[in-house]
Write a structure and sequence with these properties.
Oligomer: single chain
Distance between the termini: 45 Å
Order of helices and strands: HEEEEEEEEEEEE
Radius of gyration: 17 Å
CATH superfamily of the largest domain: RNA polymerase II/Efflux pump adaptor protein, barrel-sandwich hybrid domain
Strand content: 35-45%
Helix content: 10-25%
CATH topology of the largest domain: OB fold (Dihydrolipoamide Acetyltransferase, E2P)
Length: 152
């Protein structure tokens, strides 16, 4: 298994390749590790994720993750049921499924996660008002990660 220093060097090198060739996405397998970098909108930041030999997903990024704002006690969270790319709408030119302030019912589709070329509609188990959309459009999210917060 590669150490985190080696991962950081690999990510830095892949970012250089992406920037030099003006790429939006790159996926590379090196040994038992797979690295996928995706250019985020609107800037040149990238999200990186890898699959380890043990089968677990590992977030690998040169930038520190920002701590999530704390949720109030009554907030219900829609979490990612699988690892995939978060999309807030059915297509780039479509309206988002939900926006902050929208009132939804249990069972409403709130986003799509793309995993292995399959688009999975994610439904809310809760009704209420959208208070925060935690994930960013086009961001690679991991299983169990908060996607959307809903207040009753």
């Amino acid at each position: 298994m590669a150490d985190s220093r080696s991962d950081e060097q690999t990510i830095a090198h892949l970012l250089e390749i992406m920037n030099e060739n003006d790429l939006d996405r790159v996926k590379v397998t090196i040994g038992d590790a797979t690295y996928e970098l995706v250019r985020r909108e609107p800037g040149p930041q990238a999200v990186a994720g890898g699959t380890r030999p043990d089968g677990g997903a590992a977030a690998v990024s040169g930038a520190a993750q920002t701590p999530a704002a704390s949720a109030s006690a009554n907030v219900k969270k829609v979490v990612a049921p699988l690892t995939g790319v978060f999309y807030c709408s059915a297509s780039p030119d479509a309206e988002p499924f939900v926006k902050v302030g929208d009132r939804i019912e249990a069972g409403d589709v709130v986003c799509i996660l793309e995993a292995m070329k399959l688009f999975n509609e994610i439904q809310s188990d809760f009704g209420g008002t959208i208070s925060r959309i935690v994930a960013e459009n086009g961001e690679l999210v991991t299983q169990g990660q908060d996607l959307i917060w809903i207040e009753p």
